[in-house]
Design goal:
- By secondary structure, the protein is an alpha+beta fold.
- Among the domains are: about 170 residues, Uridine Diphospho-n-acetylenolpyruvylglucosamine Reductase, domain 3 (2-Layer Sandwich), CATH 3.30.465.10; about 120 residues, 2-Layer Sandwich (Alpha-Beta Plaits).
- It is about 30% helix and about 25% strand.
- The protein has an eight-stranded antiparallel β-sheet with strand order 12-9-11-10-14-15-13-16. Strands 3, 4, 5, 6, 7 and 8 form a six-stranded antiparallel β-sheet that branches. A two-stranded parallel sheet has the order 1-2.
- A hairpin with a 5-residue loop joins strand 6 and strand 7.
- The chain starts with a helix and ends with a strand.
Length: about 450
C-alpha cells in the first residue's frame, strides 16, 4: 500500500516526539504542551498553568485522510475545525459536532469537552471519535479505541492534556448539505422555552438545536436544518452580528460553513467588551483586523498586562446543568447573575464517562444536560466572586463546570466530581514519571 506524503511526515514527527519524551522522562521535569497557534483556554492574568519547558507539537496539524465512502477522516490534533470543515464539505460531509470557533483544534475539542448544536443527539466531538494515537509521558506510542484499551480511550476526553499527548485521531463524518435554514421561536418564559426545547429534542428531526436568552423574558429557540437552496444567504463574518440577528428574525439562511462558525466573528460576544466593535462604521474599517476568535484572543493576550490590574477577570465559563434542573438554575441565574445573552446548548451524554465519579453521575440524575455558556460577566464586586458563586451553584444542582477558566475547588470537592481512582490508574499507565501536568493542577486557578 502506498504511503502518502502526509502519513510519512506524520510518522517522522511521531518518531521524533517519542524520542524527545524518552529523553525527558528520566529528568522528571513537567513540560507544557505547545501546539502552536492560539490557545483556547480562557486567558487569565498571571496564569501559572502554562509555565515551564515547552514541548513543541506545532507540526501535528495535518489532515491525513478523508474516506468519503466510509464517512471517516484521520487527522492530527493541531488541525483546526475551520480547516477540517472546509475540507470535508468539499465531499458533502461534516464532522459530527463542530465547535463554534474556527481556531479550536481537534485535540483541544477532545481534551476540553467541546459541544455544539448537534450535541442534543450526537454528544460531543469526542463521541464521534473511533481511535486515538497517543504518545505517553515515557515516549511509548499507544493506540486506543472503544474496544482496545476502552478506559484509557474514554479518559483522554476531558483530561485537558494531563494524561498523554494525542498525535492522531480517527473519527466519523456526517452527510451535509451546502446551506442551513434557521428557524427562531421567540418565547417569554423559561417554562415555555424548556417545553419547546424538550419537544424538539424528542422529535429529533432538526439537524441543529440551541438557544439564546437575550433577557429575563426573551428566549429564542434556534432550530437549524440542512437545505440545498435558499432565497438568500446571510453573512455574519464581518459587518453584521449573529447573536443580535436571532432577536430580530424569525427565519434566516446561512451557508453550512458560516453556520458552523456563526459565533466566530464576535468570539461569542467578546467584541462587546469593546462596544465600538459592534458599530457598523467601525466594523467596516477595523473589522478585518479585530474580529474573529483568533484575532480577539490574540488581542486579549496583548492587553493582559492591563487586565492583570483588575481585581478579577470576567466570568467566561460553560456549566453543564442536568436538564431536569435547568428551570431551577435559570431562576437562580436571572436573580443573581443577570447577564445576557446566555447561550444554551442541549447535550446528551451516551453513557457515564469513566472520569466522572460514580457518585457525581448519580447526582446528575440523567443523560441530558443543558450547557449554559456565560461569556464576559463582569466580576469586580469586592464582596462577591461570581465565578466561585457559579461553581458552587453548579455543584449543588448536580452539574459539571469546565476547567478552562478560573476554578476554586477544594481537594475534597474536586474528587467528589472526578473519579480519582480511574484518573490515577490512567496517569500511572500513561505518564508514570509525571512529565505532563496533573489534573489537580487545574483544581484551583485564579
Amino acid at each position: 500500500m502506498e504511503i502518502s506524503r502526509q502519513q510519512l511526515s506524520h510518522d517522522q514527527n511521531l518518531e521524533a516526539l517519542s524520542a524527545k519524551l524518552r529523553s525527558l522522562a528520566p529528568l522528571g521535569e513537567p513540560v507544557v504542551i505547545d501546539k502552536g497557534g492560539v490557545r483556547h483556554f480562557v486567558p487569565l492574568p498571571r496564569d501559572v498553568r502554562f509555565r515551564g519547558p515547552r514541548l513543541d507539537l506545532s507540526r501535528f496539524r495535518q489532515l491525513l485522510r478523508i474516506d468519503a465512502d466510509a464517512a471517516i477522516a484521520e487527522a492530527e490534533p493541531g488541525l483546526s475545525f475551520g480547516e477540517l470543515a472546509r475540507a470535508t464539505l468539499a465531499h458533502g460531509l461534516l464532522p459530527a459536532t463542530v465547535p463554534e470557533l474556527e481556531g479550536i483544534s481537534l485535540g483541544g475539542a477532545v481534551a476540553g469537552c467541546s459541544v455544539e448544536s448537534m450535541s442534543f443527539k450526537l454528544g460531543g466531538f469526542h463521541d464521534s471519535c473511533l481511535e486515538y494515537e497517543l504518545v505517553t509521558g515515557i515516549g511509548d506510542v499507544l493506540r486506543c479505541s472503544p474496544t482496545q484499551e476502552p478506559e484509557l480511550f474514554h479518559m483522554i476526553h476531558g483530561s485537558y492534556g494531563t494524561l498523554a499527548i494525542l498525535t492522531k485521531l480517527r473519527f466519523r463524518l456526517l452527510p451535509a448539505k451546502p446551506l442551513v435554514r434557521m428557524e427562531y421561536r421567540h418565547v417569554a418564559t423559561v417554562e415555555r422555552f424548556q417545553a419547546e426545547l424538550s419537544r424538539e429534542i424528542e422529535r429529533g428531526d432538526a439537524d441543529f438545536i440551541d438557544g439564546i436568552v437575550h433577557g429575563p423574558a426573551s428566549f429564542v429557540l434556534c432550530l437549524g436544518r440542512f437545505v440545498d437552496s435558499a432565497p438568500y444567504v446571510s453573512d455574519y463574518r464581518w459587518l453584521h452580528v449573529f447573536y443580535k440577528s436571532t432577536l430580530a428574525r424569525r427565519e434566516d439562511y446561512l451557508s453550512t460553513l458560516d453556520y458552523c462558525f456563526r459565533y466566530d466573528a464576535e468570539c461569542h460576544w467578546l467584541s462587546r467588551t469593546a462596544p465600538p466593535l459592534e458599530w457598523l462604521p467601525v466594523r467596516m474599517v477595523l473589522g478585518k483586523a479585530f474580529l474573529g476568535s483568533n484575532n480577539l484572543i490574540r488581542w486579549s493576550k496583548v492587553l493582559e498586562p492591563i487586565l492583570a490590574r483588575r481585581r478579577r477577570p470576567d466570568v467566561v465559563c460553560d456549566v453543564f446543568i442536568p436538564a431536569r434542573r435547568f428551570e431551577e438554575f435559570y431562576s437562580w441565574y436571572a436573580a443573581r447573575f443577570r447577564f445576557w445573552p446566555l447561550w444554551i446548548v442541549p447535550y446528551r451524554v451516551p453513557s457515564r464517562y469513566p472520569w466522572i465519579a460514580p457518585e457525581q453521575w448519580q447526582r446528575m440524575g440523567g443523560d441530558l444536560f443543558i450547557d449554559c455558556a456565560i461569556y464576559g460577566r463582569p466580576n469586580g464586586d469586592p464582596a462577591l466572586d461570581y465565578s466561585e458563586l457559579l461553581e458552587e451553584k453548579t455543584f449543588e444542582l448536580g452539574g459539571l463546570k469546565t476547567l478552562i477558566s478560573r476554578n476554586h475547588y477544594s481537594e475534597e470537592r474536586f474528587w467528589q466530581i472526578y473519579d480519582r481512582e480511574a484518573y490515577e490508574r490512567a496517569k500511572q499507565r500513561l505518564d508514570p514519571q509525571g512529565i505532563l501536568p496533573h489534573l489537580e493542577s487545574l483544581r484551583r486557578v485564579g
